[in-house]
Each structure stands twice: as structure tokens, then as C-alpha cells.
Amino acid sequence: MAFVVAVAQQKGGAGKSTVAANLAVALAMGGDRVALLDTDPQQSLARWWEERAHQPRAVALDFETPAGWRIPAAIDRLKRNHGFIILDTAPHAETEAKIAIRAADLVLLPMQPSPADLWASDATLKLAAAEKRRAVVLLNRVPASGKLPQQIQAELVRRGVAVLAEKLGNRTAFASAFMLGLAVCEAAPKNQATTELSALAAAVRAMQKG
Ligand SMILES: Nc1ncnc2c1ncn2[C@@H]1O[C@H](COP(=O)(O)OP(=O)(O)OP(=O)(O)O)[C@@H](O)[C@H]1O
Ligand SMILES: [Mg+2]
Q1: Neighbours of 199 (CB within 10 A)
Q2: How far, in Å, CA of 166 to CA of 179, rounded?
Q3: Are 137 and 109 a contacting pair, CB within 8 Å?
Q4: Would you kindly state where each structural domain of the chain is located, as residue ranges?
Q5: Nearest ligand, CA of residue 19?
Q6: Rounded-to-integer distance, Cα 20 and Cα 8, Å
Q7: How many alpha carbons fall within 13 Å on the CB side of residue 66?
Q8: Which pLDDT band, with edges at 50, 70 and 90, does 97 fall under?
């Protein structure tokens, strides 16, 4: 049975699509069969997937774009023969995001370390709590210097929110790989972004086990 991860965050541009696509590929590289579901009506991953078809470096991945009420049925079908199902979700806690969270074993919240992003995360955290889903924050686009990430993390911990020790830095490798329809682990295996992504994939594997 697949472990279902909803990458959700009501704040637009937090890195949901980037994290969902990269995490799906990193898990697939580890040998699992992985399905990536783009549940955002904007279908931000559609072009990425199109580009991917021309890429000999692309590892095998299944990709679907179920909308609204079709999401749970797609998950139920894919659960039987996949190790992981990764859901990219829509911003603004729309109906799709709610459905995705309800169907998930884990809600992964990418959050840029800024006060605006911190405050905007409340809605998604509340939604996950209302659905009794495990939620963890992934600090994303973390700058190389400055105290703000630590301060944001401390505030999250103070509020009782789980924050992953693994973080993703602010790295252009993500956009460069995305442009080619790839994840950083395929396009730039030696980049620091790949090291961080691999650590994230390992953390998700650990959470699957309990
Ligand atoms: N770790 C990172 N380092 C550098 N750039 C990043 C990182 N993560 C995401 N980005 C960039 O941030 C922008 C927004 O990312 P993305 O589209 O993944 O966010 P999103 O949450 O899916 O947005 P939306 O809410 O519109 O769906 C993109 O340009 C992406 O390349
Ligand atoms: Mg997106």
C-alpha cells in the first residue's frame, strides 16, 4: 500500500510544485514505484511532464492530473501498486487541497522562512489538524545566511508545529532542472540541492515507517 504525501500550503509560490516533483523523482530513484498527482487546477506540472517525455535522464514515474472529486478514486486505484503517491495541491486551501489533505498519510508544508509565509501557513495547518493528518513543515528556499530561518523555526516549535530537520536551500538548480522536465537529482546530481533533496526523501521514507 502506498504512502500518500500531500504537498500543501495555502501560500502561493511556497514551492509546492517544486517539492512535489523533486520528491517524487528522488523517491523513484530509490527504487519505489511512485505516482505524482497534480491536483492543482492550474496544472503547473503539466509542462514539466511534457518536457520530461524528451529526457533520456528521466527516471520512471507515473503522472496523473485528477481534479476535485476524482482525486480519492485515483489514489485508491494507484495505492495498490505504488510505494508512494505524491500530491501537488492548489494554493488558497481550495476544495482540491482539502480533498488531497483528507486522502493523505502525511501533509508536507513547504514554507519559506518569512513572517508572511509563517502566518499564511495557519490555514493549512488547521486543515490538516481538522482532518487529523500528520503535518510537518519543510523550510524551503532557506537563505545561506541570517537568523530569520532559526527564528521562524523556533516560533513554529513554540506553537507545537513539527518542523523537519531537513531543509532546502535557495538554489537555482531547482528552476534549472524544472525547465528541462527534470528533478535536481537527475539534472545536477552533484549539486547541494541534490544532497538536500536526498535527505528529504530519506526523511519521508522514515515517516512512512512510523
Ligand atoms: N528551494 C528552492 N530554491 C530556489 N527556488 C525555488 C525553491 N523552491 C521553489 N523555488 C522557486 O519558487 C517559485 C515557486 O515555486 P513553485 O511553483 O514550486 O511554488 P508553488 O507553491 O507550487 O506555487 P503555486 O502556489 O502557484 O502553485 C518557482 O520559481 C521555483 O523555481
Ligand atoms: Mg504549484
Answers
A1: 16
A2: 24
A3: yes
A4: 3-203
A5: 1
A6: 9
A7: 24
A8: confident
Mutation to probe ligand 1, out of 174, 191, 194, 197 (largest number of atoms < 8 A from CB)? 174
- Residue 38 reports pLDDT greater than 90: yes
Q: How far is the CA of 190 from the centre of ligand 1 (A)?
A: 21
**64, 28, 50, 66 alpha-carbon torsion, rounded to 10°:** 10
User: Could you tell me if the CB of 15 is within 6 A of ligand 1?
Assistant: yes
Is 142 a residue whose pLDDT tops 90?
Answer: yes
State how beta strands 34-38 and 84-88 pair.
parallel
Residue with the smallest CA separation from ligand 1 atom 7 is 141
DSSP label at 169? B
Of the candidate CATH numbers 3.40.50.300, 2.120.10.30, 3.10.100.10, 2.40.10.10, the domain formed by 3-203 belongs to 3.40.50.300
Q: Per-residue pLDDT averaged across 54-71, rounded?
A: 95
The model carries a pTM of 0.97
Q: Name, in order, each residue with C-beta under 8 angstroms of 160's C-beta and a sequence gap of 6 or more.
A: none
Q: Read off the pLDDT of each residue in 125-150 and give the average, rounded to a whole number.
A: 95
